[in-house]
Amino acid sequence: MSIELYEMNIEDYDEIYQLWENSEHIGLSEADSHFGISKFLERNPGMSYVAWDGDKLIGAALCGQDGRRGYIHHLMVHPDYRRQGIGRSLVGRCMYSLTRIGIQKCHLFIFEDNEAGTAFWESLGWTPRVELTMMSHFLDE
Ligand SMILES: CC(C)(COP(=O)(O)OP(=O)(O)OC[C@H]1O[C@@H](n2cnc3c(N)ncnc32)[C@H](O)[C@@H]1OP(=O)(O)O)[C@@H](O)C(=O)NCCC(=O)NCCS
After folding, report:
1. Ramachandran area for residue 127 (φ above 0: left; ψ -120 to 50: alpha; else beta)
2. With contact defined as beta carbons under 8 Å apart, do 59 and 77 qualify?
3. Which contacts qualify for 52-56: CB closer than 8 Å, 24 or more apart?
4. What is the pTM of this model?
5. What was the pLDDT predicted at 74?
6. CA gap 41, 43 in Å, rounded
7. Average pLDDT, 10 consecutive residues per value, the chain (141 residues)
8. Phi, psi of 118, deg, nearest 5
9. Which CATH superfamily is domain 3-123 in?
10. 27 CA → ligand 1 middle, Å
11. Strand partners, 58
């Protein structure tokens, strides 16, 4: 087994979406359509990564920035490949890509009941922001 990490390419969208769709704790929406991810990758070149085992896609992480802060979305490693450092490596690539352009802090959203996910992020030094609540509004209403 030889795991390789590459920059995310929109040509691999179907495999990436399938991985996310079959994952626990990943919330998908219209923003994750082919069009949406394509726009995201164009806007944030060289920041999102995937992991392959040969021709099998086994991990993905979306990363972007708004000029001020970085954001990591939809980190997922196939269940058969967990606890081998692949999640950590994907996040490392994302964080390096942000550091390289001077972004000093990165945020992420995680479902409250995702205990394994929280343990993962905490093991990498991320801190839960218990003083904050996320609020959202659709813009076409
Ligand atoms: C979270 C996830 C991406 C971790 O991927 P992974 O490749 O297994 O993680 P790593 O092997 O790099 O783990 C690094 C460290 O995180 C911690 N960790 C990872 N999974 C953990 C778990 N299930 N429980 C407790 N700690 C965990 C450990 O400290 C681990 O180091 P160790 O294996 O040497 O003890 C993976 O479990 C996953 O895809 N989960 C479903 C989707 C998800 O929840 N994504 C996060 C959304 S915010």
Report:
1. beta
2. yes
3. 52/3, 52/4, 52/5, 52/6, 53/1, 53/2, 53/3, 53/81, 54/2
4. 0.97
5. 98
6. 5
7. 94 98 96 98 98 98 98 98 98 98 98 98 97 94 67
8. -65, -40
9. Gcn5-related N-acetyltransferase (GNAT) (3.40.630.30)
10. 17
11. none
Nearest Cα residue to atom 23 of ligand 1? 116
Token output for 71: 């954001």
At 135 the pLDDT is: 97
Q: Which residue is closest in CA terms to ligand 1's atom 32?
A: 83
- Cβ–ligand 1 distance for 85 under 6 Å, the answer yes
Sign of the four-CA dihedral 129, 84, 19, 91:
positive
Cα–Cα separations (whole angstroms), residue 41 to 117, 120, 138: 24, 25, 22
Q: Can you give the residue ranges of every domain in the chain?
A: 3-123
Angle at 85 between CA 128 and CA 68, to 5 degrees: 45
